[in-house]
Amino acid sequence: MTVTETLTGTERAVAARIAGVSKTFGAQQVLDDISIDVAEGEFVTLLGASGCGKSTLLNLVAGLETPTAGTIDVPGGRPALMFQEHALFPWLTAGKNIELALKLRGMPKAERPAEAERLLELVRLKGAYRKRVHELSGGMRQRVALARALAQDSNLLLMDEPFAALDAITRDVLHEELTRIWAETNVAVLFVTHNVREAVRLAERVVLLSSRPGRIAREWEVGIPHPRRIEDADVAGLSVEITEQLRGEIRRHGQH
Amino acid sequence: MASTETQPKVEDEPVAKGAATAVADRKTDPAGDLAGLEAGLDALDTRTSARTPLPVLLRRKALPPVVAVVLVLGLWQAAFALNLKPDYQLPSPLMVWDALAEEWYKGTILGIIWQSVSRGALGFAVALLVGTPLGLLVARVRPVRAAIGPILSGLQSLPSVAWVPAAIIWFGLTDATIYTVVLLGAVPSIANGLVAGVDRIDPLHLRAGKVLGATGVSGVRHVLLPAALPGYISGLKQGWAFSWRSLMAAELIATSPELGSGLGQLLETGRSYQDMPLVLGAILLILLVGIGIELLVFAPVERRVLRHRGLLR
């Protein structure tokens, strides 16, 4: 496992290397020859319409499924994964949800409460430790879920449309939070979305997947400096370009 | 939060107003006081569930059953007064009360109740220890499920009193007979409850557990069992009801001096002396113990679990 070796020519070590990965379910090919390197501390968004297999790809990287062909290498060990639904355990408080992740990663019991408090503060939920999951709003639940994912202390965070179910204001705020936390923790993020603006707003690199089977259609480096806003002209400009390409990909499916 | 707390009835208006201010804040504050904005959103979105005050709770929850009981007693007394049946067949509530009071003054009634309750509790505890691993096996191991899953659900609909003759032939008039019948009644309920609980687990929670590294035994302990708890508890409740029923059936049929005297035997004694007030009194006691254990033991546990998960208001 030579982590310093690179394909993209940059000098950053890889947090995840997806090499020639294909996945078939029965007779249907979902992913076809996908190769993506996510550098340490890099923020990559995977963008695509339905049927591009983006969630499948995340499940493969998370180790929840195995690829039909190709290899996936995650040098830092088991990656953290955040789902579209918060997936918090309703029988535990917010704090205990985070503590469970700490426990499962092997942290001694005495250190867990303080670390859970620290992570809650990181997502600006100081004082929510004793709150039950159902007592939290949608945005707060996703922040606790983010804190729980960070509690795994993985250097790779996989996010499967984590903000898709939130209202626009809350989503906007969480974009800012995620950008801040990403900068503070230097975790690499592989973020799946079907929202082009969200992809551009967040990422250093956007990877567009075509559908059925999912193939890499094109990649964009997003050079827009932070802080960004989803309504910024630069974000909108690149989004228009990517959307055009995405529409082209979708149109192909209507012309059999 | 304060606004929703103090005026829960006009919730909509203040929230709408508040959301508007949050947007305004964001526009006028280009540096982005993100923390403040977030705090505002959190406050607006948080629902506080105020506890119902005790007098209201009593009126809502305790009054209706009291009224119902008084009504039934009234009808009973009326039927007695109208002489619908001779007194030895239909005694008045007071006569039943007197019969129970007489048992009380004999000083045996607490012992009788304790005999049955302790048997029921012990039988239930053993059923719990057998039914839980059995339920887990059926829920998680596919061949086991295919093999004994249907039998287990079938056993649940078999009245456990049907086991009494078999148990008497196997074990004679001993405690073993009584516990066999109780276990055959309660174990399928408890196991089936756990199976149902596991089946109803949100698959997302299982995936989340895997991602966090909860696999094998730690997956069962930290994800599977707590996630299945609501179904498991209703299984336990039903298991208790089946234990109690089976116990009464066994005590009623398997009577012998060595077995001591429980509520079932009391009922049988009443029958052999044609003592209707005592029979009705014994039925009443059996009912009261069953309801009492349900209310004192299972209901609080279930309420607590459901409230913590936001499944109960």
From TrEMBL, chain B:
Keyword annotations from UniProtKB, A to Z: Cell membrane, Membrane, Transmembrane, Transmembrane helix, Transport
Location in the cell: Cell membrane
All residue ranges annotated as the ABC transmembrane type-1 domain in the record: 113-297
InterPro entries, per database record: MetI-like, MetI-like_sf
Bilayer disposition of the protein: Multi-pass membrane protein
Region (Disordered) residue spans: 1-24
Listed SUPFAM superfamilies: MetI-like (SSF161098)
Transmembrane segments: 62-82, 120-139, 151-172, 178-199, 211-233, 278-299
Family from the record: Belongs to the binding-protein-dependent transport system permease family.
Protein name as annotated: ABC transporter permease
Lineage of producing organism: Bacteria, Bacillati, Actinomycetota, Actinomycetes, Kitasatosporales
